[in-house]
Each structure stands twice: as C-alpha cells, then as structure tokens.
Amino acid sequence: MKRFVFGALSALALTSTAALAEYPEKEIQGIIQWGAGGSTDTVMRSVTPHAEAALGGTVVMQNMTGGVGAIALNHVVGEDADGYTLLMGAENPMLYKIMGLGDKDYNDFTPISILARGTPMLVANPDAPYNTYAELMDYIKANPGEVRFGATGPGGLPSVVTAMINTIEGDLDVISVPYDGDGPALTALQGGAIDVMPAVLGAAIEGVRAGKMKPLAVFDVERNEKLPDAPVVTEFNAAFETYLPWGPFFGVFVKNGTPDDVIAKLQAAYAEGAKHPDFVELMDNRGFTMMGISGAEADAFLSKWQQGTAWLLQDAGLAKNSPEEFGIARP
Amino acid sequence: MQHIDPEHHDGTSDATPGGTENMRRPGELIFGVVMLVTSLGLLWSAYGISGFEALSAPGSVPMATTLAMVISAALIVAKTARLPLDTSETLSRDILPGVVLIFAAALVGYGILLKPFGFLPTSALFLIGAIKLLARRGWGWTLTVALSSLIVIWLIFRIVFTVLMPAGIVPEAEFIQFFRDLTNGGDA
Amino acid sequence: MNFLTVFTQPQLLMLVGLGTFAGVYVGAIPGLSVTMAVSILISFTFSWDVYPAISLMIGIYMGGVYGGSRTAILLNIPGAPSAIATALDGYPMAKRGEAGTAIGVTTVMSFIGGFIGIGVLAVAAPVVSDFALKFQPRDYMLLAILGILLVGSLSQGSLLKGIFAGALGIAIGAVGRDPLTFTERFTFDFRLLEGGISFIAVMIGMFGVSEALLQLHHVDKDAVRQKINRIVPSLSTVKKHLPLSLQTSTIGVIIGALPGTGGDIAALMAYDHAKRVTKDPEREFGDGAMEGLIAPETANNSAVGGAFIPMMTLGIPGDAVTAIMIGALFIHGLNPGPMLMIDQPDMFWFIVGALVMANIFMVIFGLTGIKLFTKIVEMPRSVLIPLIMLLSIVGAYAVNNSITDVYWMLGFGVFGYFMRHYGYPLGPVILGVILSRLLDDNWRRAIISEREDLGRFFEGIFTSPLSLVLFIAVILIFVSQTPLWTRGKRMLLGRKSESTSK
C-alpha cells in the first residue's frame, strides 16, 4: 500500500516536472478580498470564467475577508510568487499605509488587470427637503448638525467624497453615521436612519430608478449615460474638476517577482475575459466604467490614484499617517 | 430542572450543563479564578481601546461587557469557594483523564503539522493514531476505516466545495489538474 | 415563467430536488455552510440560464437551513448556527433513543414553518418590507438587547455563569478591527487577531471538539440504540402544537425579513418564546421537550421566506445567502432592486414556486433515509470521535480558508470542555458572538445620530411607536425573569440555593 502511494506520487511528480514549461500546470487560487455577494466578489466571479477559458486553466476562487481586505492581501504576499495565487481586490489597499492598516499595498504587486472603475454619487432620501447638491449645501448651512451622512469607515468611498466636499466647500457641520458597507447604508437611507449617502453609482442606480432615493449629484465631470437626468457636481461647483474623475476600482494582481511569461499569460487571459460581451454588459448595467488596463498604464493609474486620494485625505485631516512618510508625492 | 439526571452530570447536553450543584468539582475554583483574572485583563484592554472618550466610542460596549464579565466571574468565584469540595472525584480521573490529555496533545500536534506537512498526511496520521488508540483493533481494520473516511472527507471538501486545505508535501493541485486534463481529454 | 413553471418543467424540478438533497447534507456538516455552497454555485452555474441556476440555489438554501438540525439532534453539534437551539432539546431526545421521533417532528415542523414563510412572501411582501425598513439603529439595538435577555432561558444551571458566558461571547465578537472605525480591539498587537475570530470557528470548537473530548470519557460505553418506528408525528401531535408553530413562524418571518438579522437569531428567540408560553410541557425544556424542537425549527425555516422579502421587493438582502443570490441575479443580467417586481414580476413568482417545491422536497428527503442517519449515532465511538475532530478542523478551516481559525477552533474546543465540566452553559457564548455586532454597531449608530445626547436618544425611543413597543418588551422580559427580589436573588446565586441566600 505504502509503496503504491509512493510510486504514484513520484510518477505524478515526474509528469509535472516534464510539463513545467506550460503554465498553468495546476489549479490557480484566486483570493477575493471581500465577502461573498459584494461588488468585488460579483465582478471577480463573473470575469474569471471568461479568463479561464482564455487561459486554459482553472482558477479556484475563495473569499478571505477581514481587516478591510488586509488579511487577504497579506496572505497573498506570504505565498510564492509563482503566479498560482492571484489577489482579487478593490481600491482599499492603496490607503492602508496612510490609514495605519498595514505596511503593504499594491506596490508589492504586479497588476494583471485593472478591470473597471466606479463613479460616486450623492443620493438622498426622497422625502428630504432638498433636491440638488446646491440645495443640500444651503440646507446644511441653515441647519448645522442636523443632516445625517452615511459613512463606511475611514478610507471608504464616503469618506473620500466627504473630504472632497469639505476641502472645496469648507467644513460641513453634519453627523456622520458609520455603516459597514454601502449596501446597509443605502438600506438605512431608505428607512430614514440617514439622510444623505455618498455611494457608488452602481449600488444606488436601482433605488434611484424606482424613486426610493433621489440623486443630488454625480461625482464626475460629465453626466452618466445610465442616469442622464442626474446633474454632475461640477455643474454646481467647477472646483471639483481638480479631483475628478475619481472612483473605486477592481483589479487582479500577482505578487512582485512572478515570472514575466506567467504575467504575460495572465494579462492576456484577463484582457480577453474583460472583453467578453456578457461581462461588459454586466459592468455597464451596474454603471461601472470599463478600464481593462495592465502593465505600465496600470502602474501609472495606481500611483496617480494613490497620490490624489492620500493627499486629499491628509489635507482633510482624515489620514492617520502622512503620505510623505511612505514617499507618496503630492500630486 | 430541579433534578439533575446523573447521565447529564458530565455536561454532554448543553441544556443541562455539567458541574455538581452543591459541591465544588476538582479544579472548578482554579477555573473560576482564571476566568476572573482573564476578565480583569480584558477589562483593562477594553479601557485601552478608547477610554471614556464618547458614548459612541469603539471601546464603550467592550468595556460594559468586560465589566459584566468581571462582576459575574467574581460572584462565581465567591460562590464556588463557599461550596464543599466533591471528594468523590479527582482531577486526573473525572476532569482530565489521560485519554483526554493525549487527544488534546494530538490536536495541538495536528495544528502544528498542518501547514508544513499538508492536510492529507497530517490527517491520515491523526486518524490512524486516534482510531488505533481508541478501538484497539488490528492494523488492517484501522487503516481501512481511517483512510477511507479521510478520502470521503477530502473528496467532499476539496473537490466538491473547492476548499483549499494546505497542500504541504502532497502535490494536490497538480494531481487534480492531471485528472482534470484527463477527463477533458476524454470529452474532446 | 411564473409560479407554476417549476412544477411543469422536469429539468427545473430535478434541479430544485437535487439542490434540496445536497442542501440537507451541506447543512448537516458543521463548517459547510449554505452561504459557501451558494457562492460556489455562482461560478458553477455561470453559463447556465438564470432559472435553472436559481432553482439549484433555492434548493440548497431550503435544504441547508433544515439540514443543520440533523447533527444537532444526533451528535449535539449544530450543523449551522440556526440549529443551536435545536440541539438543546433534540440531543436529549437522541440520548433517550428517540432520534427518529425528533427528526420526524423537526422535518414536519420545518415544512410548516417553511410554508408560512413562503406564504407571507407571496401575499404580503411589500407590506412586510415597508415594516422592516422602519427599523432604525436604536430598534436594532433594542432587538439585540431582547436577544441578550435570552441568556436567562439558555442557562438552565446558574444564571450567573450564563451571564458570564454571554458577556464573554459579546467580547469575542468584538475582537479584531472595529468595522466602523478600524480601531483595534482586543488584538494585543497580534496581526492574526486583526481579522477577528470567526464565530463559526467558535461554534464548531465549543460544540464539536468539546463534545468529542467529553465523549472520550465514554469510549467503551455502548451507543444508545435508536428506536426508529414512529418517525412521522401523528396528526394530533401536529394539531396540538399548531398554535405554537404559528407564533414561532411569525417570529421567524419578521426576524428573517429584517436586513441584518437571520435564522440564527430567529431560532433562538423562538425557543425563548416557546419556553415562555408553554405552560406545562410533557417534558422539561432541556430534557427533550417537543416544544423546544418545534420552535427553532419552524422559525429558522420561515426565516427563509422572510429573507426573500426585502430581496425581492427592494433588492436588499435579508441575510448572507440572499446577498449572494442578489449577486447571482446581477451576473445573470437582471437588476435586483425595487424595480424587479415591476419589471420582472415573473421572477418573483418563479422564486415563490421554487421555494414551495424545495419545501416539498425537503419533507421528502427529510423523512427518508433517517435510518441511515441514525446509524451515525450508533457508530462505535472509537471511530466517531476522531472523525468529529477531523470534520471540526476541516469545517473551521473552510469558513474563511484560515489556519488561524483552526487554532481558535481548537482553543475554544478545549475551553468549552472545561466550561461544560464546571457547569458554564455554552449557548450564551454563541448567542453573545452572534449579537455582538448587532448590539455594538447599532448602539453607536443610534447615539451618533443623536449627537451623543442620551436625552435625545430616549426621546427618540418614546416618540417612535416601534421603538416604544420594543423597549416595553425589553422591560417586561427583564422583569419577568426577576419577578420578585427573592426569586431574583435565588436565580443569581444559583439553582436551588435558597438556604445559602438567606
């Protein structure tokens, strides 16, 4: 029995060495930074089957949650740089350093594909006494300390959007009520527990279409074709152009040091997967802007994103550590 | 609940926990004191989270709960100390017999070996050892039962539910890919 | 596509059946969760049509919620958090050799509860979801306090030890980075603790490993022979308990429909309710009371229908599984949200039909093969104990693919072993962990919304009818647990110790 097992194992080892040239020779693990059912999960689970087809391999995806995604990131850093462990994440790691959440971020990774980015927007309860961004600003000034904004913790999209508004309009006297994600916060908005929520367009769009929440402003430089009637914030205040377009993004990464041919194969596979019409349609429905970038272009996007956001938070007094400490240059 | 069935005395049903009613079991007081000390440590740690910063501070609820732990643990210790020791029981026979210690050690060993060795060898070792020790039957029987149940568990978790247990020294992923290629080849 | 689609298309019928069958086993194995199974199905059914994919998922969901009761009854290890209360009276029944009866009652009652949940979904979904949306943070907080008061009925022994265990559970739930401010709590600067302790790992350790360690004391004792006649409960039994099952099903639907609470809390609250309203049970609760089995099982299955209510009407998940299903609908090109019912009413009726079918399959698979299941308990302990330990390890790992969780699970297993020996109840620990965030997060949201002003906070409670009702319920239950000072004192100082308290 023992000899049989040993023999079978060594035979296997032989076959696998013989096939070494062909990546992937075994299953690839895809570590998803966020929980099942979230946006990152949905995006990754819908693009990966198309990428698998192009790659000719299997990607076994699993969710590893906790620590705002830092648990998953640190796990992948701890694995071998052989291209058999992929990190599937969102924008959060780029703020870990300044938020004191960890000392690793996407600079320790090579982007396989930055798939898409989202657009933030400001939505309000339909019964709220203001209908546009400008009216909201006036209302806040007239009723200090009364309007309740939803938040998702330091570094989350609402905190960045609020920081932009504070920087441009001067500090707003509002109550910031924390939720653990934009889903629960938008639920609370519909129930009247909060009045205003900065959320990603894709999460709010169905509620807006149904009249369960009203759009105050889309945080972009031009109107979104999914919500053509919703004004963009630059129509109210052109000063926002400095920071926009800005948005959360999704990407697939491997650890630095992964062999170039493996990276090339993965990049080609995900580029192919991201072009699949089903995936494009899904992203379009959720109001995401397709990017599908990799290589130097992705690196440039990441560092620009990090510089802008980190300094914005720093200037708004929300950062725990100064971006300077980590060599993040002021944009 | 007035009558505690002797069968339940060991706490195998959560609804009627173990422990004797009017007696102190061996080690019960020590356990109570350990709980009290731990609770105090946790209360201190909870105070360190945010102090008395605000009602909504992240440390408020932890402080309240650890305070409840300290108070209840202290009352439990006081109450336990007043009870007479149950002399019909001994620590080594009724609370921590050898076989429990062996298994606790085996579980710790399992935890240590799991990552470097991998799931399959560690589990095989554990199951064979445990079943051999408990059942005291022949090697043939032990090996058959242990390995066949391990294979079933592995198939369910690894293949059906794609739970990636640490592979360790066994090239699991290559193995599965090999079979996947084989079946794919068959289909084509 | 409508309500009858599932019944007329053999392919869909088969998939619902297959899903339900698989679900029963997924639910029964601790560590394999419905959430996990459904998220794997998303990848698996990726290229399918949306209807077959949803059929399979609904089957797994229904079967899985029910399946958790199996191991709870047979091994005292709840297969899923929603079956914790089931173990309280189910396992004592198995110890008497009545596992067959217990499973039979559980199955029929789950079926009834399931139907009530689906019925409410079909008839009153918009009304219930409007009601669920009315819950403000302070109402969730009051609900959590109501839940914590359950410690009283979950600690049969010393109430004091129950309070300790419950508080410990809340503290365990707070470990890691606080999700609202990312402040570290109870991490002692260990990076491994930043992600917190998975409560499934705590549950598996406390119930699975500690149970296995305890069983080591009885390795040589013969297993209890199970009587497996009289599996299907008689009509009169069902009739007798119908009022109770209607009440507990209502609890299940409402708790299930609230975003943020699910079948686990529903089942525990229902158990507590049963204990309160059952005047003279044939057997004491905790000793194998039929009511103690009926309440959690009707509630957790009616919570399934409840969880679909906000999902179908508003696109808001009622629990973790419906959250993944919303993702699945997205992937299949639908846009779940308030418009779904208007744009695609077919989808709603299709889901209702699939749920009905899954419920029927559940009763079929539940009542067959019981003989095989009861054989598990009759297995020699020398094999069963190592297998429980191994399954506990794999299960704890599977939750979040983390070895740290395995260590925690083992640690809590040993800890739970001592707790059982010294008369500390384990239920309140799990209850505390489940309710920890509900209580903590919502307390903070509530008080932040009132600008840290306690006066405004209480004003809010007294001016909202919903909050007021919940607040009064909290007070009433608290008082009912301590009706007189003397009795309160007696309970505090432990069971039957009037002599010492004087």
Tell me how many strands of chain A there are.
11
What percent strand of chain A?
A: 15-25%
Identify the CATH class of the largest domain in chain A.
Alpha Beta
Number of helices of chain A: 11
In helices, the fraction of residues of chain C equals: over 70%
Q: Shape of chain A, please?
A: globular
Features:
heterotrimer, A: 331 residues, alpha/beta, D-Maltodextrin-Binding Protein, domain 2, 2 domains, six-stranded mixed sheet, 11 strands, globular, B: 188 residues, mainly alpha, 7 helices, flat, disordered N terminus
Helix-strand layout with pairing:
The complex is a heterotrimer of chains A (331), B (188) and C (502).
Chain A: H1 2-18, E1 28-32, H2 39-55, E2 59-63, H3 70-78, E3 85-90, H4 96-99, E4 109-117, E5 120-124, H5 133-142, E6 148-151, H6 157-169, E7 175-178, H7 182-191, E8 196-200, H8 201-209, E9 214-218, E10 249-255, H9 260-275, H10 277-285, E11 289-293, H11 295-315
Parallel strand pairs in A: 1-2, 1-3, 6-7
Antiparallel strand pairs in A: 3-10, 4-10, 4-11, 5-8, 5-9
Helix pairs in contact in A: 2-9, 6-11
Chain B: H1 28-50, H2 60-82, H3 91-95, H4 98-117, H5 119-135, H6 139-160, H7 172-187
Chain C: H1 5-8, H2 10-28, H3 34-44, H4 50-75, H5 84-95, H6 99-133, H7 137-148, H8 151-154, H9 159-174, E1 176-177, E2 184-185, H10 199-215, H11 235-240, H12 242-257, H13 263-277, H14 290-314, H15 320-331, H16 340-343, H17 345-367, H18 370-378, H19 381-400, H20 403-421, H21 427-449, H22 454-463, H23 465-481, H24 485-492, H25 498-501
Antiparallel strand pairs in C: 1-2
Helix pairs in contact in C: 2-4, 2-17, 3-4, 3-15, 4-5, 4-6, 4-14, 4-15, 4-17, 5-6, 5-14, 6-12, 6-14, 6-17, 7-21, 7-23, 9-21, 10-19, 10-20, 12-13, 12-14, 13-14, 19-20, 22-23
